[in-house]
Design a protein that fits this description.
Layout: H1 6-18, E1 36-42, E2 51-55, E3 59-65, E4 70-74, E5 80-85, E6 101-103, E7 112-117, E8 130-134, E9 140-145, E10 170-172, E11 181-185, E12 190-194, E13 206-207, E14 217-219, E15 228-235, E16 247-256, E17 259-267, E18 276-278, E19 287-291, E20 303-308, E21 320-321, E22 331-333, E23 344-348, E24 354-357, E25 363-367, E26 382-384, E27 393-397, E28 403-406, E29 413-417, E30 428-433, E31 436-444, E32 454-460, E33 507-511, E34 516-519, E35 536-541, E36 547-552, E37 557-561, E38 578-583, E39 589-594, E40 599-603, E41 620-625, E42 631-636, E43 641-645, E44 662-667, E45 674-678, E46 683-686, E47 706-711, E48 717-722, E49 727-731, E50 748-753
Antiparallel strand pairs: 1-32, 2-3, 3-4, 4-5, 6-7, 7-8, 8-9, 10-11, 11-12, 12-13, 14-15, 15-16, 16-17, 18-19, 19-20, 20-21, 22-23, 23-24, 24-25, 26-27, 27-28, 28-29, 30-31, 31-32, 33-34, 33-50, 35-36, 36-37, 38-39, 39-40, 41-42, 42-43, 44-45, 45-46, 47-48, 48-49
């Protein structure tokens, strides 16, 4: 189907009839709030929205792309850091109707810029559609041309040109490999996904069977470390395709192993809107909020939907019907102070109305804030503190010039800024740093059918925060109110923690060199402090918490505080180093475990057997004592568990295909069961509750491997220590501190509880 032309016809007729308002006067050297700080004139921004990004060697800039195919990086003072041509076909610029996306494409910590290219305006006929990626200095990184499905200007057969990309690309990791990908829809009826180097991800593109105006949202909905794609699309009835229909469709796409699975929900009118993701009603389920158009005039037209993303069912109280047609995308932000930060939904319609709803669908306000008899909100709003009062407000581009600033609490008009150009995109609230905060508004002069007259204006804002500062909320265009922080690749899946004083007073951890680090517990000494220069692999605290032992690789035992020295293996020939010391419940004895499974008992510790004479598939790496002290468990690196004395077998990971070897065992103090720790931070629970793991935090990568797990005194949780000195708390374990950054001779090897 040809790119939808009803918006263009309606818009130009209305704007030419209504007229435009002139520019505000130039700002003084020190501008007051809302005064213009700079203006860049040239080609127009039609549907494109400005955004912002941090680029190497340039810093924080506003990024704008226009109908001449120019991409500009603009500094806080309005000077141009660099300008580049958007040319999917090398040397042939293409108009831009979307917003640039900014993100790290190659994992080097530096951001790149990705721009979709293509327009259906007659003045752009013959241009090539696609996507272009730029380095942070403005040089071209790669180009991607879409398919030639049809002539986007006439609706006729293919014209020899790749079809346009109206959709604004999103940058995120959809494959779970730790590297960002690029996702976008296109008028070539496809949903595309590219690796960061511009190559096609296996399994893509995905056929939509009609044009895609919608920009994707990316979010890890199932906690598997891969971002799912949520995107809308148009649909047209084709007699040759029995399953086809006229309307729109919402898709949730999930990539795994080169295949894309999808869940869909059909609508009987188009879905050109870009979904916004968030938990709008506080039910713990993620919702997608989007609008439907009025191309077919069907029952789903002119509606704002909120659907649960787990089953695509309607959220209670939704959808909402608007008075005017809808083309813009909703924004989410906390417009109601004191409601716990739950986001409200804001959107404008083509009839000149702006709406805000609570998450349960009740209307917060609806206003028609433009001059009497004038209309036109074609783009989505941005949400941020616009008047410096600490509350979130709404800024929306106005079809009859500039942008309107509305109070978030009641929709009252704060101020109109600009007026020289019709603004159909989303204004950008840009915090440049150093106390410089601007509202950046793009637009075009509808009296120029070539779209080569227009520009970008920036207006002074007071200090404040912004919940939805730009189109798609943030520079990567993830499209959610809770985008994942840097270094986090998926939602946390761990059970809720409940730190308790009963978990222990604090903890110590041991460095390979015998150094001891104490956190909220007394420091009783270390090997370097007494002049011993020998590597150590294990420490343990007395059950009474009044001291600890440190054991060296050679089997020498050193007691500190109230921990008695009851014997050791000094001078004894060992086939393997000593790797664990486990105290008895009385604190008057201990076992030493060697790497070959040999057990050595001292004080009131009894000998109940060992694996020293058993042919094992993997070496023994851990040990735990029963509550009575009359038995113990041993665990091997393949997850096999061996019981001795009165220790009860609760299960093992010996039959599992482990991603990483088991490195530690922790027994609950009452002996009811035990936990096994994998080197990747994964936890296996046997006879005891699972309280969480390091992968369950959602971290993209583990900075250092987990080396030991220790239970809390109460048995309601545990701590994991990584080799770099990082400490992770789960269940009722209270966090008392860590010392990340350790490596080499002083890397962390064990932890003991106070």
């Amino acid at each position: 189907m040809a790119a939808r032309s009803w918006v263009r016809a309606l818009l130009i007729g209305a704007l030419l009839a209504g007229g435009l308002v002139g520019l505000a006067p130039a700002a003084p050297a020190v501008a007051a709030v809302y005064e213009q700080r700079w203006a860049l004139t040239g080609a127009g921004l039609h549907r494109a929205s400005p955004t912002y990004g941090d680029l190497s060697g340039v810093g924080r800039v506003a990024l704008v792309a226009d109908m001449s195919g120019a991409l500009k990086a603009v500094r806080a003072d309005g000077s141009i850091a660099w300008a580049a041509g958007v040319d999917p076909q090398t040397g042939s610029r293409t108009a831009v109707e979307g917003a640039p996306a900014v993100g790290d494409l190659d994992g080097d910590g530096q951001n790149e810029v990705v721009v979709g290219a293509g327009s259906s305006q007659p003045s752009t006929a013959g241009q090539w559609g696609g996507v272009v990626a730029f380095n942070g200095n403005g040089t071209t990184r790669w180009r991607f041309k879409t398919r030639d499905e049809y002539n986007v200007y006439t609706g006729g057969p293919p014209d020899g040109r790749s079809d346009g990309v109206f959709s604004s690309p999103a940058i995120g990791d959809i494959t779970g490999d730790g590297r960002n990908d690029v996702v976008f829809g296109s008028w070539d009826h496809q949903i595309h996904a590219l690796n960061g180097d511009g190559s096609v991800i296996p399994g893509f593109p995905v056929e939509n069977t009609d044009t895609v105006f919608s920009s994707p949202a990316l979010y890890d909905l199932d906690g598997d470390g891969r971002l799912e794609i949520v995107i809308g699309g148009d649909q047209s009835r084709n007699p040759a395709v029995p399953s086809s229909f006229s309307g729109g469709i919402l898709r949730v796409l999930d990539w795994a192993g080169g295949r894309v699975t999808q869940r869909t929900r059909p609508f009987n009118d188009i879905l050109a809107s870009s979904p916004a993701i968030g938990d709008i009603n506080g039910d713990g389920r993620f919702e997608a909020v989007f609008t439907t158009g009025n191309f077919y005039g069907a029952s789903d037209a002119k509606k704002v939907y909120a659907v649960h993303l787990d089953d695509l069912s309607n959220v209670g109280g939704w959808p909402k019907t608007t008075a005017g047609q809808l083309f813009g995308s909703p924004a989410l932000g906390d417009l109601v102070p004191g409601d716990g930060g739950r986001p409200e939904v804001a959107v404008g319609d083509l009839g000149g109305n702006v709406y805000a709803w609570r998450g349960d669908g009740t209307q917060l306000w609806a206003v028609a804030p433009g001059p009497s008899g004038r209309s036109g909100f074609f783009g989505g709003p941005s949400i941020g503190d616009l008047d410096g009062d600490g509350d979130q407000d709404v800024a929306i581009g106005y079809g009859f010039g500039g942008a309107l600033l509305l109070r978030g609490s009641d929709g009252g008009l704060i101020r109109r800024v600009g007026g020289a150009f019709a603004s159909l995109g989303t204004p950008a609230i840009v915090d440049f740093g150093g106390g410089i905060r601007r509202l950046v508004v793009g637009g075009w002069d509808p009296r120029d059918p070539s779209f080569q007259t227009g520009g970008v204006e920036a207006y002074e804002l007071a200090a404040g925060t912004a919940d939805w500062p730009v189109f798609r909320r943030e520079p990567r265009h993830l499209g959610g109110v809770d985008p994942l922080p840097t270094g986090v690749c998926s939602k946390a899946t761990n059970p809720p923690s409940n730190p308790s004083p009963a978990s222990g007073r604090g903890y110590w951890f041991l460095g390979l060199d015998g150094g001891v680090f104490s956190f909220d517990v007394p420091f009783y000494g270390s090997l370097p402090a007494i002049g011993v220069r020998e590597e150590s692999l294990a420490m343990a605290s007395r059950p009474q918490g009044d001291g600890y032992w440190v054991v060296s690789r050679s089997g020498r035992v050193f007691g500190f505080g109230g921990a008695p020295e009851l014997g050791d293996l000094a001078g004894a020939p060992l086939n393997s180093p000593v790797i664990r010391l486990v105290p008895t419940p009385s604190g008057q004895g201990y076992w030493l475990l060697a790497g070959d499974g040999g057990i050595f008992n001292f004080g009131d510790a009894g000998f109940y057997g060992s694996t020293g004479d058993i042919r094992l598939k993997a070496p023994v790496i851990g040990m735990g004592a029963s509550a009575s002290g009359r038995g113990y468990w041993l665990v091997a690196s393949d997850g096999g568990v061996f019981t001795f004395g009165d220790a009860v077998f609760r299960g093992s990971a010996g039959g599992l295909q482990l991603a990483r070897p088991i490195v530690s065992m922790a027994v609950r103090p009452d002996g009811a069961g035990y936990w096994l720790l994998g080197a990747d931070g994964g936890m296996f629970s046997y006879g005891v509750p699972f309280h969480g793991s390091i992968p369950g935090t959602g971290a993209c990568a583990i900075a250092a491997p987990g080396v030991q797990v220790q239970p809390t005194r109460s048995g309601g949780g545990y701590w994991i220590i990584a080799s770099d000195g990082g400490v992770f708390s789960f269940g009722d374990a209270a966090f008392h501190g860590s010392f990340p950054g350790l490596s080499g001779a002083n890397r962390a090897v064990d932890l003991a509880v106070g």
